[in-house]
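Reading is simple: each integer encodes one residue's backbone shape. An example follows:

___
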Amino acid sequence: MALRIEKMASDALGIARDEGRMVFIRGALPGELVEYEVTERKSGYTAGEVTAVLEPSPMRRSPVCPYYGRCGGCSFQIVSEHDSAIIKEEIVRDNLLRIGKLKELPEFMEPVYGEFSGYRHRARFHVDFSGGRWGFLGRKSSELVQLEHCPALSHGLDALLSDGRRLLEQGRSEMFRNRVSSIGFSEVSAFEGDDEVSLGDKAVTVTVDGIRYYVSARVFFQSNPSLLPPLFSFVRENVIGESIMDLYSGVGTFSALFEGSGRKVFAVERDRECLALSRKNAPSALSFTADVAAWGKRNGRHVDTIIVDPPRTGISAEALPLILSWGAERIIYVSCSSATASRDIGRMEGYRAVKARVFDFYPGTGHEESAFVLDRV
């Protein structure tokens, strides 16, 4: 059956309607007429994948990776980096209106994007130690796809694929530590810093916008460091006042921006390994190892600006009212899921979203990053 794609949804899914029923189709673009196969039926919608493109979008292009369709990563290589950013901004706008139920959209700055080639400095490899194989999992399967080259990976990470001795050695170490996936492969996390690659918990340095960060492969740090400077500028330029609360602070990525500024920064992060690195990256911040909601019940206080960078699930229902009760003049919300960010923003009574920007940190994928400024009204 052929359907016309109306618009895009989160995770770069095309939206169409079949006799009034919502259909989410992977591999489709706005305006295209496509044939598809059903992959899942739910009570409220159908999911599917493109089998043929009858009327292609002018944006459509051929994937640049020879493993596209087999490897489980980078499932949105069918548009350019520029068009990817434009599409993702439209998704964010739609989520704010539909999920957040905003009556008025904030001012959107021009989206930020970069090159697909070599952007990714962080990866998680799967290693079959007994079989001497390594690579990534296949698309929607537990098959191990062994690659000799990945165009998205940074030079140091890509070198691990061509010569897998370090991956096999680390995979053996992870196996003895019982860090084995449910399908029997060792999972090896890797991060490339300035001069070397971290495997496991070894800390390396990465310099971004003149700031030196200590990072290990086991903690989260942005996979695309080349796009961090414009995000840093967005945060710096929109912070107001002399006191800042950095919630879900990770390794101190944002706290470090205010070193030497004289501002008082409270950093809250529940992962002890992250916070140990945060104390090196942002030594003047007052750092706390705790869940945001639990910490807030004991230590909540007024600050001028609150920065939140929560996980994909967003701010918990328990933490959100606490954050609002602190009465900050401004909230800067950095999000890796505009769907949950829109949900949270729509619940932030007493605040209005005034500015937004999309950062396409993950070109070639359906993931988008966005940042919002909310002012107290």
Summary: The radius of gyration is 21 Å. The chain has a mean pLDDT of 93.
